[in-house]
Specification:
Length: 410
């Protein structure tokens, strides 16, 4: 929202600057006159602010010069942001693994790092994360103080306002000051955005995957990993902070008095359809001697999802049964989510859906369980599982925060 009038002039300038920067970011290359028109501000106001941004090196003139912008004797170029002018770090802390990445202002991945040291200790996880971030920064010739922002995400109940990881039941992490701890660990005084890791992925899609979302008014991001979450996003909102709910769908009860869940309840979706649950069921079958092929494949240790999918594709009956149950339960849950929220689009990220047959059976179950009176036109898009989707989403949050609060005038 532009605010050109008012008693508090410095604040007015800041509001104008960030609104102009966001307009350039989301629409660039763009003519100054069009920025003025979109924001309802005067051309001189745009020119003054854009000149400040050009001087600061974050915006530059680009492309073909255009006339008709009120300049005498000189044509003006459209302006666009300078991708390499600002850098952002994104970090995802999972426990079993962690990833960090460096993005430029346009969200392009410049460098990424993944660490798979198994570690359930919160402090040790942060230490490992710090080492990754230092490695990335030194390989790119940057210092921590060069960063325009940092984003951190983790599974569980996360308060983005307070920057706290309130609860991660399966790791017994309670009331962790993620923002404060990361700031202290890195000695970073800038802005740190904190979010749940499924929400971060949704933000990443909203900022960096516009081509997938197209004109979707609302979208849901179903993320299946060790847990399951499905944040809903109002895609039409122009600013950051539009997530409706954390979407902790992993704990919706699918079978009253069913299998125990890490939250202490029974019969939760996560107890059937999370990667952790599928792996645990197959491991139990392996111990009962029902899946000799799998035992041979992984030599007695805990199988990975990739190994389970390989056995499923080979036709291993016990693995197939487990995966079918997981996909079926997830399909019923998705139908309930669609019946409730009717998003225009649902993005689905989960290792299970690397196999086409699992995609087909999920959608079949969803369609069978959708409410007949709701004419749902939800579009389903399977997103390829990507090591860096969480870290990239966290960095995207930092970019959004930077665009919201950008202030060159001071
Ligand atoms: Zn639960």
């Amino acid at each position: 929202m532009p605010f050109e009038q008012g008693a508090n002039l410095p604040r007015v300038k800041v509001s104008n600057q960030s609104a102009i920067l966001r307009t350039i970011y989301h629409n660039g290359p763009i003519k100054r006159a069009e920025i003025a028109q979109r924001l309802g501000l005067t051309l001189p106001t745009i020119t003054t602010n854009v000149n400040t941004m050009i001087a600061a090196g974050i915006v530059r003139e680009t492309g073909e010069a255009v006339s008709g912008e009120g300049y005498v004797g000189r044509k003006a170029h459209p302006v666009d942001i300078v991708p390499e002018s600002r850098h952002f770090i994104g970090l995802e802390i999972q426990g079993g693994w962690r990833t960090a990445c460096l993005l430029d202002f346009r969200g392009q991945l410049l460098c990424g790092c993944r660490d798979e040291t198994p570690c359930r200790d919160y402090g040790k996880n942060l230490e490992l994360a710090r080492a990754m971030i230092h490695k990335i920064l030194s390989s790119c010739g940057l210092r921590v103080s060069d960063l325009a922002g940092l984003g951190v995400c983790a599974p569980g109940l996360v308060s983005s306002e307070r920057g706290m990881l309130d609860l991660r039941p399966s790791y017994s992490w309670f009331q962790k000051d993620l923002r404060g701890d990361v700031a202290a660990l890195l000695g970073y005084g800038g802005s740190i955005s904190v979010e749940n890791n499924a929400c971060a992925r949704a933000y990443g899609a909203q900022l960096l995957q516009r081509e997938i979302l197209g004109g979707a008014q609302t979208f849901a991001y179903l993320f299946i990993s060790e847990g399951i979450a499905c944040p809903l996003v109002l895609n039409t909102a122009s600013s950051f902070g539009s997530i409706v709910g954390a979407g902790e769908v992993g704990h919706m009860v699918m079978e009253p008095n069913g299998l125990p869940c890490s939250c202490g309840n029974r019969g939760c979706l996560e107890a059937y359809s999370s990667d952790r649950a599928v792996i645990a069921r197959c491991e139990e079958a392996m111990e009962r001697g029902e899946v000799p092929g799998l035992k041979e494949l992984c030599g007695g240790r805990t199988p990975s999802m990739a190994e389970l999918l390989e056995r499923q594709a080979e036709g291993d009956a016990a693995v197939r049964e487990t995966v079918e149950k997981a996909v079926y339960t997830l399909g019923v849950a998705v139908a309930n989510i669609i019946n409730f929220a009717c998003p225009s689009m649902m993005l689905i990220e989960g290792k299970l859906f690397q196999l086409q047959e699992n995609r087909d059976s999920l959608l079949q179950t969803v369609r069978r369980n959708l409410c007949n009176v709701i004419r749902s036109d939800t579009e389903y898009v399977f997103v390829a599982p990507d090591s860096f989707s969480g870290a990239r989403g966290a960095a995207a949050m930092a970019i959004c925060k930077d665009l919201e609060t950008y202030n060159q005038i001071g």
